[in-house]
Every structure is written in C-alpha cells, then in structure tokens.
Amino acid sequence: MLTEPLSALTARTLQNCGASAALDVAGGMAVRSPVTGETVATLAPHTAAGAGAAIDTAVAAFKTWRLVPAPRRGELVRLFGEELRRARQDLGRMVSIEAGKSPSEGLGEVQEMIDICDFAVGLSRQLYGLTIATERPGHRMMETWHPLGVVGIISAFNFPCAPWCWNAALALVCGDPVLWKPSEKTPLTALAVQAVFDRAVARFGDAPEGLSQVLIGGPDLGEALTDSTSVALVSATGSTRMGRIVGPKVAARFGRCILELGGNNAGIVCPSADMDMALRAIAFGAMGTAGQRCTTMRRLFVHESVYDRLVPALVTAYGSVSVGNPLSSGALVGPLIDKAAFVGMGAALDDAKALGGTVHGGARQPVEGDAAYYVKPALVEMPEQAGPVLRETFAPILYVMKYSDFDAVLDAHNAVGGGLSSSIFTTDLREMETFLSARGSDCGIANVNIGTSGAEIGGAFGGEKETGGGRESGSDAWRAYMRRATNTINYSRELPLAQGVSFDIG
Ligand code: NAD
C-alpha cells in the first residue's frame, strides 16, 4: 500500500536526489506515471533557443574538458559512481514511478549505471592506441585517440537512465561533454540523475560548466541534436522508426551515430535442453519488464519432440504470473507504459488469431483503475512465423512455434528485420557452436542457456540490421567517443617516401 499520493512520492524522491525543477508549471509538459495513469508533474520544456544555448555551452565545455588528463576525468566518473550508490534507492524508485518497473528491476537499472562507472574509471587509464611497424627506416608510426566532441544522447522510455550512463560514463572519460534528450515519457528520472551528477561535479571541483546537461521535451529536441553540426556524435536509443529518421540526418552532415533500435528477439529450445532452466529463462526474458525491454524474447522455436513438455508448462507459468502495482505489491509484471501500448498489443493479438494463432492470456487486468494499463502477458501458439510475429510489438507477447529441422530453424530465426538478441537452449555442443558461428544467429547478442535479456555492461551492447548496428557499454565501444589520429614520426636525417615513391626536387 502506498502511504502518500504518487505525485507527493515523486516530488519527495526527486528532492532526495537534489533535483529542484518546478513540477507544476502551468501549461507545461505533463508527465504521467504508468503505475496509476495519473499526472505526477508538469514540466517546462526546453525551447529550440534553449537547446541551441545548451549546445553552445557544451561546445565551450569541450574546449576545456578535452585537455584534462583522462585519469583525472575518470576521477569525476568515480565520484559519480559513489553518488549513484548513495542515491540508489531513490533513483530506483524514480524508475519504477516513471517506467513502471518492479523495485528489483528499477534498482537493477541503477546498478547498471554504477557498474559502467566502475568500468569507465578503469578505462580512463586504458585509452590505448597501437604502435605500428613502419616500412621506412628511422620512422615510428602510432595511433593516438583524442576526444571527439559533444555527444548527444537520445534515450527511450523503457530504460530511462542506464543507456544514458553507458554513453555518458564512457564519453566523459573520453573527454566529451554530454547532452541528454530523455524520452518525453520519462524526463523526471533524467532530472534526478542529473542532480546526482551535479553532486559529483561539486565534489570534483573544477569541471567546466555544462559538462552534462538535460534537454526536456519531445522529438523536436532530439532533432536539434541530430541536426546540429556542433554535436559530433548522436547516440540514439529507441524505435527503428526513429532510427530511420535520425540515422540519415546525421549521416547527411557526416556526423557520427550510434543507433540502438528495436529488436525481434528469439529463443530456440532444442531436444537436449535443460527444460527447467529454459522455462525460467524464457519466463523472465518474455514477461519481465512487462515485455518492454529491447531484448525481450518475442519469438520461441521449440523442437517438436519437447513441445508438449515445455509449452504447457509455460502456459501454466503465464497463467499464474503476478500482475500488479510495482510500488505497492510484489508483482513480477507491472503496467504497460500507456494506452497506445495496450491498443498495439490488442491489435497484434487480433492479427495473430486471424492467422490461426491460439492466444493464452493477454487480457487487461483490473489494477489501479481505468487510466493505467495492466495486462496478463500473452503466449501465442502460432502455426508459422507470419504477420505480427515478424515485427516488434512493444508488449508482453511471446509467439511460440514448433520446429523439426535445425538448419531450417536457424533460417527462420534470422528471417526478421531486428538483429538484437538471441538464445539457444541446448546441451548439444554441435548445436551450440553452430548457433554461435557464422551460420548461426545474425544478432549482436547470441546467448546459450540464458535468455535474450539482462545483458552485463562488460560486453559491447547492440545489434545488427534494423537494430541499427550500434555498440555501446563495454568491450571497445569507447572508440566511438574518440577520434583516431595516425601519427608518423621521422627521427632520421633522410626523407624516404612511402611505397618507394621518388620526388626529387634537386
Ligand atoms: P521512440 O522511438 O518512440 O523514442 C525514443 C526517443 O527518440 C525519445 O527520446 C523520442 O523523443 C526520440 N525521438 C523520436 N522521434 C525522433 C526524431 N524524429 N528525431 C530525434 N529524436 C526522436 O521509442 P520508445 O517508445 O521510447 O522506446 C521503445 C523502443 O526503443 C522499442 O522499439 C525498443 O526496442 C527500443 N529500444 C532499443 C534499445 C536498444 O538498446 N537497442 C534499448 C531500449 C529501447
């Protein structure tokens, strides 16, 4: 049971984080919580002129920040990680209020921010370039990595803060200021995170003004980042529809882009799979976060020999999963973000039925009244991969299909537009290695015996095809935030030209 109105809880949570924005601006941008459907704040959005001024401030910050030694830049991110640890409960609650996640998933998102800060601090001493053998005597060749410039970060509603931090923590140690345009559905989490960042800046002492800024508003502000030649890199997370607009615009001005777009992620359950493990992994992958993760499992191919064992058990799990208010109950499944998501889910289920699909679950649940949209997750047994199965519906729908031939199921697995995440459940070495090989999954993430969602920060995150091809977070994703210079140094008394070319001016 909540002991105070949601708007009061929201205001108190923001205050705990140190955020001071006015939350009741007349005629402002309404921020609605999916938990109850009520408006919890109205914010003053940025104007185009405000966005331009923020970009100018970021450009000025870059001129200073790029000259600060990288390990010192890492110190700011270390302090930020400390502040995030202190604010963990409040930020996690803010994610639950704004995105409707369970407390555990809200806290998990904050933990991801802490983890990437730790990673970035180490990285600040490891921005390595290569030394390369040259063909000329008395010469040395090397690569140097330099800060790139202002990084614009456009984020989606379903991960209101972690993807920002995957970008920001790396960008900051790489020497780049960040400008954040959060989803218009989750701006309060961004304001809370920015306030926590400001605490780290205050402790750091000499950071330039505007190293990290937030732009509140809709797609027009995203466009301001996309269109500005002062923004060197645009990292955009959201729908493939958005990426189709942002990608070409940034390319047209020769800017750099990281696109993290929609997925249509699948799992394959083979005859030798550990069925109990597969059941639990599929349940979390498909129903967790109410099906609103980019990595949510949306398609499942089950071998015909184990179909009758696994699928009835899954249907039972779908029937018994708890759906409820994430702030006042221990429910595993929270609300859909809004009415449009609910309508989209209903339309996809109707399409599936028209194609011969058998739908289990999917009904609206009477939680928190008419303005909130809670549903039972839906499992749909499909005769074949067609219609809605081929597209991402951002809701908890799992389409289940039977397969008999391993080679054919690999082709079916890859026959969709998205290329983000994938899983195979098997204890057969040949199947596993084939799935991970060039013949197998064409996704940016390919897992064995775990689900499609819940990636760790240490690996590079992102996907192929309509997922946009971007990579962020761990591994060598940092390189996107820096520019590479190849340097050749002649320490001899001769001037030999490469490839033996002669140019004798006498
Ligand atoms: P969305 O595309 O509606 O919005 C995402 C962001 O893009 C918002 O901040 C929005 O204001 C901005 N935007 C929209 N149009 C724009 C334009 N023309 N120019 C510039 N900015 C614009 O997505 P959403 O509904 O918030 O999020 C759900 C989608 O995001 C799903 O498709 C999901 O798969 C995807 N997603 C992908 C990843 C990933 O890492 N691949 C992570 C999270 C979400």
TrEMBL record:
The keyword NAD applies. Homotetramer. It is an enzyme of class 1 (oxidoreductase). It comes from Salipiger aestuarii. This is aldehyde dehydrogenase (NAD(+)). Residues 29-484 form the Aldehyde dehydrogenase domain. InterPro entries: Ald_DH/histidinol_DH (IPR016161), Ald_DH_C (IPR016163), Ald_DH_CS_GLU (IPR029510), Ald_DH_N (IPR016162), Aldehyde_DH_dom (IPR015590), ALDH7A1-like (IPR044638). Its EC number is 1.2.1.3. Transmembrane segments: none annotated. GO terms for molecular function: aldehyde dehydrogenase (NAD+) activity. The lineage of its organism: Bacteria, Pseudomonadati, Pseudomonadota, Alphaproteobacteria, Rhodobacterales. SUPFAM superfamilies: ALDH-like (SSF53720). The active site is at residue 260. Keywords: NAD, Oxidoreductase. Belongs to the aldehyde dehydrogenase family. Signal peptide: none annotated.
